[in-house]
Write a structure and sequence with these properties.
Blueprint (H helix, E strand, L loop, with lengths): L1 H9 L6 H36 L16 H10 L7 H9 L6 E2 L2 H14 L7 E3 L10 E6 L29 E6 L2 E10 H5 L1 H26 L16 E3 L9 H9 L8 E4 L4 H6 L19 E3 L2 E5 L12 E4 L4 E5 L4 E5 L8 E14 L5 E2 L5 E2 L2 E4 L5
Parallel strand pairs: 2-11, 6-16, 7-9
Antiparallel strand pairs: 1-12, 3-4, 5-13, 7-10, 8-9, 10-16, 11-13, 12-13, 14-15
Length: 392
């Protein structure tokens, strides 16, 4: 990394695209190695301490690294001065988090993996990881300007020229996409008895927080208004709305119209409200063939006109704009910030022997484009298509 910087500075230039990608990959590897080194150093210290006191790692009395996320929570709640928490508390303080601790990568990754199991947008979007020095700072990305009648290639024009003719200039239209991670929080109430049962609480907290993180992020990434939160794909100027044929009804004609306005060639996915299932499962084309035939014995999911469909609580109910959408979330950018952090307090529920656990993190997201694409033949398509209401 140092040699790459020295080379660029010596040539008085910035990184090119290839160097930028290589540097980012090395930066990610560096952070991962730093985390592994810290864990290994802690294990070495604990092992040396164990030898001195004639303990072993298998001895229940041996106090090394936390066994799991539940053990971390229980220790933080019952013994906040535990030496093993010092580093994580310092990381939280460095990120201007008062009274909380940083969740180590090995545990936060478990939360995010569980979130990814149910998430729709994040696994398909372009995700920019948090910067190690200024994780919550705004970042500006170059993005093609697809609006104002510009074509699918952002204004780049291609011209056939004869041998020796002067090559024409092209004017690609670029704009800046600014992403600023916003803080978002989730909390759960658990009994102190459950909190003392570390293995059980680890499984429960991971599952509940992971699901809540996925739902909250999906809701913002799809329908957020951009005020103190991400700008949703379907509330952005890039989205296209298809007027449905009949109010509170989804027809085969509606679905075909949505597909015809989608930007093809990427990785499209349908998202829908579960409330449309009665109509979808009985829908037929003009020849009388069922349109949607999932393998119900395995999973209600399946494909619709060749593309996967995901049913999510974040989609509005039947008859509302967006109850069915078709999207390529590869045109959506997510910027992760600092976190995950946790806090635990029994103050409001002390007499009930309960503890409030709060998890919070920082994230932002926006579509990479600011309008529909105009193809060479003048036809408009979009990576984000939603079903609307009938035309008045």
């Amino acid at each position: 990394m140092r040699s790459m910087i020295t080379k660029a500075e010596g040539e008085k230039r910035g990184f090119n695209d290839e160097e930028e990608s290589a540097y980012t990959a090395l930066e990610k590897e560096q952070r991962e190695l730093e985390g592994k080194i810290k864990l290994e150093e802690r294990k070495q210290q604990n092992a040396m301490s164990a030898v001195e006191t004639k303990k072993t790692v298998d001895d229940p009395a041996f106090e090394g690294e936390f066994r799991d996320f539940g053990d971390l929570l229980a220790t933080y709640r019952s013994n906040p001065s535990d030496e093993r928490l010092r580093e994580y508390r310092e990381l939280a303080v460095g990120a201007n988090v008062s009274g909380g601790i940083f969740v180590p990568p090995q545990y936060s990754q478990q939360l995010l993996e569980i979130a990814a199991e149910t998430a729709v947008v994040r696994p398909r979007a372009v995700v920019i990881p948090a910067d190690g020095t200024s994780p919550d700072a705004s970042i500006n990305l170059p993005a093609l300007d697809q609006g104002a009648g510009s074509n699918i290639y952002g204004g780049v024009e291609v011209t056939w020229i004869g041998e020796g003719d002067e090559k024409p200039e092209t004017n690609a239209k670029f704009r800046e996409l600014q992403l600023t991670p916003h803080e978002v929080a989730a909390h759960i109430v658990v009994t102190d008895k459950l909190l003392r049962n570390a293995p059980a609480v680890s499984s429960i907290i991971n599952r509940l927080f992971g699901g809540a993180i996925a739902a909250a992020e999906d809701r913002a990434f799809m329908f957020g208004d951009g005020v103190g939160k991400p700008l949703g794909a379907f509330t952005s100027p890039a989205a296209t709305t298809i007027a449905r044929k009949t109010a509170a009804v989804i027809t085969y004609v509606d679905i075909v119209a949505m597909l015809s306005k989608a930007k093809l060639g990427g990785s499209l996915v349908w998202t829908a409200s579960q409330s449309i299932l009665p109509q979808l499962l009985t829908m037929k084309d003009e020849a009388g063939n069922l349109i949607f035939q999932p393998n119900i014995a395995a999973d209600i999911g399946g494909t619709l006109l060749g593309y996967p469909i995901r049913f999510t609580e974040n989609s509005p109910a039947l008859g509302t704009i967006g109850d069915l959408t078709l999207s390529d979330f590869g045109y959506y950018v997510i910027k992760d910030g600092a976190g995950i952090f946790i806090q635990a307090s029994d103050a409001p529920l002390f007499t009930q022997n309960k503890t409030i656990i709060k998890a919070f993190w920082n994230v932002d997201g926006k579509p990479w484009v600011n309008g529909p694409f105009t193809l060479a033949n003048g036809y408009q398509v979009s990576p984000f298509v939603k079903l609307g209401v009938p035309t008045p």
